[in-house]
Amino acid sequence: MTSSEKDNNRTRNEPFTTFINKMDRLFSERPPKGMLQSLDEFFGSTKERSFPVDVQESNSEYTLTATLPGIARSQISIDVLTQAVTISARKAVKQHKNLNAQGMFQREASTGNMSRTITFQKPIDEAHVTARHRDGILTLHLPKIRGNRIEIN
Fold first, then answer.
1. CA 6 to each of CA 9, 17, 72: distance values in angstroms, whole numbers, following the listed order
2. Which of 36, 149, 135, 145 has the alpha carbon at shortest distance from 80?
3. Distance set, CA 90 to CA 51, 87, 120 (Å)
4. CB atoms within 10 A of CB 85
5. Collapsed DSSP state (helix, strand, coil) of residue 4
6. Within its chain, how far is the Cα of 5 from the centroid?
7. Rg (CA), the chain
8. Over the stretch 22-74, which tens digit does the pLDDT of each residue have?
9. E-strand spans in 2-147?
């Protein structure tokens, strides 16, 4: 094998070698953040498409609090499933500037969609879910369905 053939083989294997090295590093090094957060950042920016959610659990219900600053009640939709809730928000921003001194007019509009799906361990009583939106805070009360307890003889 000539030296040019060796160089050609090395160049052909380089992308594969780079991939293997990256995979080795992924599984050998502990990420500075949690693994799921690192994956979220890898597949897309969560800050642009998401919002913070806190979930508290009691014996009878889940209480979910989502922070949605600057989003009106009419821009929020909530879908309740048996063991999950999806909160979606559409934020529309419109700016108008009228600069009469320069004879200019400027108009900007932008929209952004955000969505979160939160799953729960126990089924939710969909008929009795309540929601409240005030000052950019959305609060959901999600009662749990109580199953029948069976005694073992």
1. 5, 15, 64
2. 145
3. 12, 10, 24
4. 24
5. helix
6. 49
7. 26
8. 777 777 766 655 656 656 555 554 444 678 999 999 999 999 999 998 888 99
9. 53-57, 61-67, 76-80, 84-99, 104-119, 130-134, 137-143
Compute the Cα dihedral for 21, 27, 28, 33 and give only its sign.
positive
Give the span between the Cα atoms of 119 and 124, in whole angstroms.
10
Amino acid letter, 32: P
Contacts of residue 53, Cβ cutoff 8 Å, sequence gap at least 6: 64, 65, 66, 67, 87, 116, 118
pLDDT one-digit tens code per residue, 83-140: 999 999 987 766 666 666 666 666 666 677 888 999 999 999 999 999 999 999 999 9
Distances from the Cα of 71 to the Cα of 30, 51, 92, angstroms: 37, 11, 8
Residue 32 per-residue DSSP state? S
Q: Is residue 2 scored above 70 in pLDDT?
A: no
**Helical spans, DSSP H, in the chain:** 3-28, 35-43, 46-49
Residue 61, both tokens: 């219900």
